[in-house]
Design goal:
Pectate Lyase C-like, six-stranded mixed sheet, Alpha-Beta Plaits, 29% strand, five-stranded mixed sheet, alpha/beta, 242 residues, 3 helices
Length: 242
């Protein structure tokens, strides 16, 4: 049976691709390598041949520019494949393109911190119904599978197994054991949270800030219902009753 129903040699369709953000704070290759080794704990499969976008928005532009060849090869040695550079100044663009990378111009300027507002205590309201855009998954997410809820929250009523990855631009709710990876706020929403009724996750992330659990979970929270939220540059794992 012929799989190509259109008869065309190629079709172009819209596709969503999730990439890891590699945010550079300096360019020294030795220091970057040491930081990556410390970050991954020496685990060869910490990353799984994932795509990466290099963010240079925090670099001191008066210092030496990145050596793109060394940087791309360094990330590749940790199974991250750089495909684009974000927040690049105009002076870097030609060199970036010459090394086969693209320019990610989708990033928005960082917003200023909001002004403090007076707290108003409102009367309790009934929980809102699930938004129309919320993705609901009722089957187990198995090893090697990836689920991405683009532009919305993700609700999963079955187990997320080891080696599985669940991603949402909003919050993630797992009403079952969470054993794989959970990445909330994938588009930069720092207010997103992760909830699970049984905490056994390998890795959690909110707005690109991640935390692993090689040394165990916070006391009293393993195999319990927890919420995970971003506080500054730190992920806090708390009881759902906190």
């Amino acid at each position: 049976m012929q799989k190509n129903q259109t008869g065309k040699p190629i079709d172009i369709k819209i596709s969503t691709v999730v990439a890891i953000s590699a945010i550079l704070h300096q360019t020294d290759p030795a220091k970057l390598d040491a930081a990556m080794r410390d970050m991954t704990g020496g685990e060869a499969d910490f990353f799984d041949d994932e795509l990466a976008v290099i963010d240079v928005g925090d670099l001191d532009l008066t210092g030496p520019p990145p050596d793109w060849t060394l940087l791309v090869n360094l990330l590749k040695s940790y199974r991250l494949h750089a495909v684009a550079v974000r927040n690049a100044p105009p002076a870097m663009e030609a060199d970036i393109l010459a090394h086969g990378l693209t320019l990610d111009r989708s990033a928005k300027p960082r917003a200023a911190a909001p002004e403090p507002v007076r707290q108003v205590v409102a009367a309790p309201v009934a929980p809102a119904a699930i938004a129309a855009g919320t993705m609901v998954v009722d089957t187990p997410v198995r090893a090697g599978q990836r689920v991405y809820a683009r532009g919305c929250d993700l609700i999963i009523t079955a187990a997320v197994n080891n080696g599985a990855e669940v991603i949402a631009d909003g919050s993630i709710h797992v009403y079952a054991p969470l054993r794989g990876r959970a990445l909330a706020g994938a588009s930069g929403n720092a207010d997103a949270r992760i909830f699970t009724s049984l905490m056994e996750a390998e890795l959690v992330s909110i707005a690109g800030i991640y935390r692993t659990f090689e040394n165990g979970y916070p006391q009293g929270l393993a195999n319990h219902a927890v919420q995970i939220r971003l506080v500054g540059d730190r992920l806090d794992v708390l009881s759902v009753n906190s």
